[in-house]
Records
---
Amino acid sequence: MNSGEKFVAWQRARLHLIVSQIAPTLLLISTVALLQWGLADTDWAVRIATLGILLASGILGALVQFQSATEAQHIAQDLSGGEYDRTVSGSSHWLWVPKFLTPAIFAVIYVALVIALLF
């Protein structure tokens, strides 16, 4: 694989990071909005199902983010010192955010929603 193909793979990995955050974010926003209109007052089963959907989406989103960030890190290492070094190196230092910080933030929000829906 030449450096141009690796750079395309780098861009693809970054796109996967962005796309993998859309569904969990929309679900969290929707849930918080629904809490304002009485979701916490619905049947127990609906609240448990809501938490299950959020958990499944969050886990899958976190896995995709972690995998895409790891792949992007490996590609960035391969591209270091080459013609795309300046372009990739500036962003590659921030890949710890989608790998670790974003899932941690999701976990905190999820715990807050568990409290809001169950207690």
---
Amino acid sequence: MSVRKRLARLGRRFWRDARAVSAMEFALGMPLVLAFGGYGIEICNLAVTNMRVSQYALQLADNASRIGVNTGLATYQLREGDINDALQGLRLFSSNVKLTTYGRITVSSLENVEQSYDDDNVQRIHWQRCVGLKSGAGFDADSAQAPGTSAGSDGTSSTAGKSAPDGIGDAGQKVQAPDNSGVIYVEVNYQYQPLFGTVFVAPTKLHYVASVIVRDKRDFSQIYNPTPTASPSTCNKYTA
């Protein structure tokens, strides 16, 4: 038998041989299944993380709007320890995404009240407190809105904070405080941690804000720090 006929016969046998069809289909299809499956998982994880980060911002704003100790004079004093407790709560319930490791959280008190050194109500960012390791543009709050690390530490005009007649927040989305009251404004910036690196999504920063009106009749004159004193979580500190 000639070589040509042998090759033709071998080709016909190979064409009719169906024993490895499933293995071939699996080998050819698996890369596509893995690619589409991985992409779907990554997008779902990104969506869930977006929802979680937005809820963390809202939860912290709500908690910070309620904290304080009753003075017996129908007002509630806000203490450094109370703020630290609220931030610690954030650490605990956001540990699944390591929010304070890969993010930066800023809590601001926007107040529209008349202090002892004012002649009328003044809207100002009275104080800010922060937590999180990330720093720099896109993570730290707008420096133009920063009241300073000593702001709110006592009831004097030197620590009054920063005037904010237009309110606080992103351009076109600024929040105003009601007369004779205040708003707790929380900004969260978080570097999303993808499951598959940058294979399916580019590096993504999540940005969410939340604001809640202070619930009780708060003493807005200052943040108190009675003995034993607590270390203020001022925005010049970067801790997880």
---
Amino acid sequence: MSLPPLKTLPAFEAVARLNSFSLAAGEMNLTQSAISHQIRALEDSLGEELFVRAGRKLSLTEAGEQFLEAVAPALAQIERAAVRLRGSSDERLRLAVPSSLAVCWLIPRLPQFQRQHPGIEIDLEMLSDMPHMSDRIADCFLTVRYRQRGYQSQRLYVEQLFAICSRPYWQQMQKRLREEKLLADDEPRSLDPGWLLRYRLLSAASLFDRPGEDWRRWFAAAGAELPTDARLHHFSHMLLAHEAARHDQGIALANDYMIDTAADPDLVRLPVPPMATGDEFHLAYKTSRRNEAAIRALAAWLEEQAARSGW
């Protein structure tokens, strides 16, 4: 069996994960010189350069990337096996999740998971985008980019956008529409989507990385067109647009994991059609780890929570 020096592998994984020799040295309680020596020994053993060093900048070579993809999960598996043999039932899973989904939907529900599975610790990794999945980042991912070699996934949520506003704003809308003889006295069951153009529209650039694109697509899905003179108020993120809507500033677009109007006393879901964005949120994890008890428990619990949320 031709193995590289095994003691060098944790050092390699730490440097690759932290992108720093000094940070890896601090984490492993070694000197930076010792870490550098171990990396050189590993490279000599493999006959390949694993890192590109350009001044203070450090990055993995192609060979380093390939080696890390094999080494990181192997080290994690060895660690889990050692924990079990030491008699500890505690397990730890790193779950990577988009920040909005984590803050608005997942975190309020996590105490229930912890009560049901006290031996499983969930460490959340907040994502600002959807990265290439890797054990270096997390054990499991809540992601819309779930198709990746070596991974399997299960669908939790198909995203759609619906229009919301505050209850006082909704009352003002109805009053104006009745004055214009467009509504009867009863609470309307549906509105003409074009009527929303009479009001301020709160747009979130984070949805489609372009100001106003959310409302343009929503009107297109409703068979209408967003005019160039529409009253748009721009925000960088949905959270800001939702807060503006909550404070009577106009109409925003929301999805099911960020806003539950049935449980929110301040916001109303307007009776206009929703728009499917085309995104599906999946729980994804390595196929080779599909039978791990902690991952199975997390997957079953997330499916249950998604069903309870009406997804």
